[in-house]
Write a structure and sequence with these properties.
By secondary structure, the protein is α/β, with parallel strands linked by helices. The protein has 3 domains: 3-145 and 268-333, FAD/NAD(P)-binding domain (3-Layer(bba) Sandwich); 158-264, 3-Layer(bba) Sandwich (FAD/NAD(P)-binding domain); 344-458, 2-Layer Sandwich (Enolase-like, domain 1). The protein contains 14 helices and 22 strands. It has helices at residues 15-26, 42-47, 49-68, 83-107, 161-164, 181-192, 212-225, 275-278, 314-333, 363-368, 384-389, 417-429, 434-439, 449-458, and strands at 3-11, 31-35, 111-114, 117-119, 124-127, 130-139, 143-145, 158-159, 173-177, 196-200, 228-230, 235-241, 244-249, 255-257, 259-262, 266-268, 301-303, 348-350, 355-360, 373-379, 395-401, 407-414. Helix 1 runs parallel beside helix 9, helix 3 packs antiparallel against helix 4 (83-107) and helix 3 (49-68) packs parallel to helix 6. The mean pLDDT is 97.
Length: 465
Amino acid sequence: MPTHTHDLLVIGAGPAGYVAAIRAAQLGLDTAIVDKEKQLGGTCLRVGCIPSKALLESSHKYEDATKHFFAHGIEVSAIDLNLSAMMKRKEKVVKSLTTGVAGLMKKNKVRVYHGHAALTAGKSVTVGGDTINATHVLIATGSVPTTILGVSLDDPLVDTSTEALSYEDVPEHLAVIGAGVIGLELGSVWRRLGSKVTVIEYLDRIMPGMDAELAKAAHKAFKSQGIDFMLGSAVQGVSSDKGGVTIDIKDAGPVKADRVLVSVGRKPNTEGLGLDQIGITPNQRGQIEVNGKFETGVEGVYAVGDVIPGPMLAHKAEEEGIACVENIAAKVSGSSGGGHIDYNTIPSIVYTHPEIASVGKSEEQLKEEGIDYKKGAFPFLANGRARANDDTDGWVKILADAVTDRVLGVHIIGDSAGDLIAECATAMAFAASSEDIARACHAHPTLSEAVKEAALGVAGRAIHI
């Protein structure tokens, strides 16, 4: 059995893993990475973030062509959906990016191993017929879909996001269990392409954990688009036959559909990794506990991304991967430097239409923590660019400390919210006040002017409302 030695071995080639490997190589560490899939990029690039956004964009264009072009003076006829071509475009996007990641590994001289990685005593890792010894091992194996009691993912008509990204036909009726990010995004895709979509949520609201006012506005927008919601509904089981699927709901009649998408969350992907072999015991949620430098309880073994506590976000995982290897490099060199992360400035985005984006504290969190705050809000209806685009749904809301004016949270629903939130996250990273944002010149006419106006609104000085 061949034996290989490296300064750092990264297990998992998703956003956390491959970004960490590149940064480690830049810092001079002899670095290797292992992934069980031939395509690098992890769930995000292969069957998650990227393919879902490709389908969201394609479905949005399809709906524009069928419903909205006429308002712009564009008359078209005989609009047909070629789902196969849409899926081929999605796969082309995925292939280009996964190929790009492989190219980055080669460019940065990161050794790539393919196969299932298993930790053994002494920090050795076996991959197929190879044994890899590394001074430092970084676990970045991501997450996998989870389900609820009474719902089996082995049922051919019960799908996770992976299957829902590759339907060969548009379901006549798609039931979605879970009103979180994944369910809303993929439900939006298939609703635009012609499915009747019913979202079933255990709680009495959608998007749990997000600002309540934001969630309420999103719920209203999605209902107006034709998505049906069953809130406060507990799914007790799912059964299927040739006629489709039946979802049993407590204290309510059953829901019948053609397919059901289970989107109730994800769990750390650590099965078969061999954590027990080296003395790591996951917590009750299956997560690997780490300290501020991403060190596990085992010397030389680190973990980042979805396998550790915190939001399961690709960009959060990337930042952790970089911070982790910068800490490793500092330790190797004996310096006092290293990476760190401000978790309060990590944005969260739902790529529906309208888009939904948040960074920092919600109003509910500020009230719970007893923090006095001021609020400024501005609707896209009063924004010139939004009017010109004929896309005026939504608003920007900025929350600032009542005494210091420091921005504590920003919540946006509307066109390009996911891009607009970046300015706000940057401002918060530099401890900016709402006045700082308000005094920065924003180009006209742009959607970003709504951010400026919301910042002005904190002090009651908004111009255009």
